[in-house]
Amino acid sequence: MGVASRLARWGLLAAVLVLWQLAALHGLPDYALSPLEIAKHFFAALGTRELYQDAAASLLRALPGFAVGTALGVLLGLAAGIARSFDEMVSPLVFLTYPVPKIVMLPVFMLWFGIGDLSKVLIIALACFYPAFINAYYGARATRRILVWSARNMGASEAEIFRRVVLPGALPQIFAGMRVALALSFIVMFAAEMINARSGLGHLIREAENSLRFDLMYVSLLTIAILGYAGDRLLRFLRTYFLPWEEGHA
Amino acid sequence: MKALRPYILVLVLLAAWEIAAHSSLWSPLLFPSLERIGREFWLFVSRPEGWWQTWTSLYRAFGGFVLAAVAGVLLGMLMGRSAFVASLLDPLFSGTYAVPKLALFPIFIFVFGLGSLSKIVLIFLECLYPMTIITYHGARAVQPVLLWSAQNMGASRARTLLRVVFPATLPYVFAALRVALPVALIVAIITEMISSVDGLGYLVTYSLSSLKTDRMLALVVVISLLGLALDHALVALRNRLVYWEKLDTYCA
User: Fold this and answer.
1) Any CB–CB contact under 8 A between B8 and chain A?
2) Helix (H) or strand (E) holding B219
3) Is residue B94 part of a domain?
4) Angle at CA of residue B177, ends B171 and B180, nearest 5°
């Protein structure tokens, strides 16, 4: 990568931050803190326990939900991708309910599973299920027939064909689905916590909003941004680790 | 029997629901019977009040969605056809892609007020990402041969963008629209659940806090039908406009 494009890469971000800081010197409304102030508050909050407790509470909702939802989605999606009768039974329901905003089920889940963490984990799992299912399904269906034929020709069993041909072929799609699901799990986690929770980053930002603590609002915002970014990076790293043959395209 | 297969799971679920509702194991508050949900549904659609609330939610969702579609297609096409624009914007988009934009909502409330505007801006921002990124990939995938022949025949840059790149990217644009439209609806409902005095999301939280579970579930049905209808309308539109590439189900 040349120097010019490397400059352009970070130039825009840097320019926005500098302009923002300059605007702050002129005096911004109360709700818009300058980047330096936000950094100051963020590092101050890093020294307190509350931030870690809220971040941990949020992650303990998002990650189990993500794990359960994607695991189920990938398993069922692969199954529907390779087994015709299962496909005909399950896929219509999944595709029918796919454009439905899953977050409207949160109040229903709160009724059934209580207002604690279980209903939030389950709604996150539900939201993550769909992209995982659909991508695994299309990944498995897109297996090239000629590969299956040659494997069968060379005497591979059905289980072996699945493990050595269908699964590796579907992995790029599965990772794409997991990436969408991860972003979704953070959104739904945050939404659920803003709607109703007594801990977590979404709760923190609501409380900060109600008490006009703008510094806390930005601290919570920055924390969630960092967590979301880190999660996405981790997933991309895993992808290049498991799929060395695919060129890493985001 | 084979033709029935797609309906088996739906019927089983509905039957299980009805059995749970009549089993008196749970309070009817938790599992209202289908009949009561149906009655509430009818009450909702037969009154103008319900249509007004639906319109409020749709107006917000569409407002942000349309703005994001226009801006996202423009940005994506520019990024796809200009290495400079791509190197300028790509880090910004891919770096903040996984960050829940919803976290900005409290700040938007202070900047744009409690009404529709803060919601529309947030919907715009959430939809902008899939629109831009998918269009970008589409604009990059345009066959060079088409561009060369356009240039060869003396088409200007703007004309090439309009007459070659745009139609060639159109299938991707529709894929992006199909990702963005449910997002718009979801964010509209979420923001209304968090802070609003109208719209479908508000009605859901309102009926829950007044323990009208049947009404709440009827609203869930309304929102689900809305999501389905919008998706079908988009696919129908796509099949008319992008007639050279047929599509009847989900496309990734």
Assistant:
1) yes
2) helix B213-241
3) yes
4) 145
Radius of gyration for chain B, computed over Cα atoms and rounded to the nearest angstrom: 22
Does residue A50 belong to the interface with chain B, where contact is any CB pair within 8 Å?
no
Among the partner residues B88, B189, B231, nearest to A12 by beta-carbon distance: B88
Total tally of structural domains belonging to chain B? 1
- Chain A hits for B185, CB-CB cut-off 8 Å, are 99, 101
CA angle B109, A218, B187 (to 5 degrees): 45
- B61 in contact with chain A, both atoms CB, cutoff 8 A: no
Asked if B24 and B206 touch (Cβ cutoff 8 Å), the reply is no
Average pLDDT of every residue of chain A = 85
Best interface-test mutation with A: which of B96, B183, B190, B230 has the largest number of A CBs within 10 A? B190
CA dihedral B104, B130, A182, B249 (to 10 degrees): 140
CATH number, domain with residue B192: 1.10.3720.10
Query: Which residues of A, range 149-168, sit inside 8 Å of B by Cβ?
Result: none
- pTM of the predicted model over 0.95: no
- Looking at the domain assignment, is residue B2 inside a domain? no
Residue-wise DSSP of A143-192: --HHHHHHHHHTT--HHHHIIIIIHHHHHHHHHHHHHHHHHHHHHHHHHH
pLDDT in tens, B63-105: 999 999 999 999 999 998 888 888 888 878 877 877 888 888 8
> In this structure, is residue B26 part of a structural domain?
no
pLDDT digits (tens, 9 = 90+) for A118-130: 999 999 999 999 9
* In a domain? residue B95: yes
Q: Which domain holds residue B175?
A: 32-39+49-241
Q: How far is A155 from chain B (nearest CA, A)?
A: 32
Q: Which residues of B touch A183 (CB under 8 A)?
A: 97-98, 100
